[in-house]
Amino acid sequence: MKIAMIGAGSIVFTKTLLNDMLGTPALAGATYALISPTESRLRRMEAFAKRMVSENGVQAKVYATTDRREAIKDADYVICMIQVGGIEAFGHDYHIPLKYGVDQCIGDSLGPGGVMRGLRTIPVLAEMVKDMEALAKPGAILLNYSNPMAACCYALGKISNVPYIGLCHGVQTTLDLISGYVGVPKSEIDYLVAGINHMAWFLKIEHQGKDLYPLFKANCEKPGYYVNEKVRIEVMRHFGYFMTESTGHLSEYLPWFRSSERALKAYCDEPAFGGESGAYYNWGKLIAEKYAGVDQLQFESAKLNPRSVEYCSYILEAHETGKPFRLQGNVRNDGYITNLTPGCCVEVPVYVDREGLHPLRIGDLPVQLAALNQSNVTVQTLAVEAGFSGDPELAMNAIATDPLTSACCTLAEIREMTAELLKAEAQWLPQFAGKSLAPTPAITIPKNVKRAEVPLDPALAVAARFGKLATQETE
After folding, report:
1. Residue 473 class from Cβ within 10 Å (0-12 exposed, 13-18 middle, 19+ buried)?
2. Fewer CB near the last or first residue (10 Å), C or N of the chain?
3. What is the mean pLDDT of the segment spanning 131-141?
4. Which residues are the active-site residues?
């Protein structure tokens, strides 16, 4: 089989997935085509991958190319790990909104940063699936790891019938936390999770038929437990269920935790991904600067480690062997969650076997959870349309409907911020070429302005009449 890895310059992630796949017997003999536009990083990753093969006696072939179509040709699987614009674009995603009072911790999934990353990524994904339709083997599966996951998979579902699934590790890592809080081995916990990427809900956590939620909630109220995940626990207190992403992530998707200094100090005061401003960008910038021009892989061991929690190798194994595997995947909402927008991206249990991907139908989410999810789906919907059309007004609309941004900025400020973002990132946004966002008209209202003599809306007329009567009554 042939496995194309698009964005293989992502050294840490590529290394992890290669380790998992090379250590899976069912994938022995595979050819791995690594592609990245950054030649130097690509060649370093190629050399390390070949060391992994030779030093572990693995049956596999590895080669690198900067030609995406060549990598995809005759591929059985395509793994997407791209980050369009890299750390430079990410810097604009973080710094420009911060000027307007929008403080992001991660900035890769929602908010101004997530919308802009989506606008940069969606056109590239569209080209990628066209290449798959033309060049990959029939039925080849696309495994997407690129953020913003929900917007990217939403877009994929609108443009192609190529089988795809979006992959994240939020459920696996959150299960580690739940296991520690309730004192039950992770492997013994029965759970049901559904929602959207980075905001999916643990609808059920049980052990041998016993509901673990009462114990989990009780322990979450203990200071030593609460401090680890303030935002997630706070949301569970008021909405009833725990969700799949960290405080740093979730704090950005809702209006209550980062829109004021008071809220930031109360809920986002832990370091790094516990809520710190710019945590992900600062980490990425530090790594980029630390290893600029340095082949850090030459100092790392090529010995294969046990498989990670990433789903990729398990999906390929199940599809090749027919042995079913269950995971949490991001797919087009073809009736799987019935009170979220049809066609959007939802995260639900998915079974994989030789016949392909089989998502599980959930039905309705609890209405309060669907409401929180839908607030994010609305932003994703507008971002996807803007990503395809290159309409700057839709880009502005997407950012304006973001829950955090709308709690921090006026519409005029959001328009100005969007225009600045589009200008700063123009080199990665070809669909917006030659288009600009109209500024908000500036109107100065003198203190003694006389109101125009126009018919009032009936409701306003009634309100004005009653206001006048109330004033006379008071006098």
Report:
1. exposed
2. C
3. 97
4. 169, 253
